[in-house]
Amino acid sequence: MKVERARLDMTQQELANKVDVSRKTIVLIEAGGYDPSITLALKIAGIFNKKVDEIFELEDEDWVK
Description:
Layout: H1 2-7, H2 12-19, H3 23-31, H4 38-47, H5 52-55
């Protein structure tokens, strides 16, 4: 997500404002400390004109076995 944000020359605060969350939420998502809701993931992907799976990836341990 950070790469896409940089591509658009967008700050964390600008992205946060666009998707109606705090800057801290964006910081946590980018650091891997917070998984966004489906709604938030869709909003973020829409800002970047990408599919959700192009922005966010599940790690192997995140899959339910």
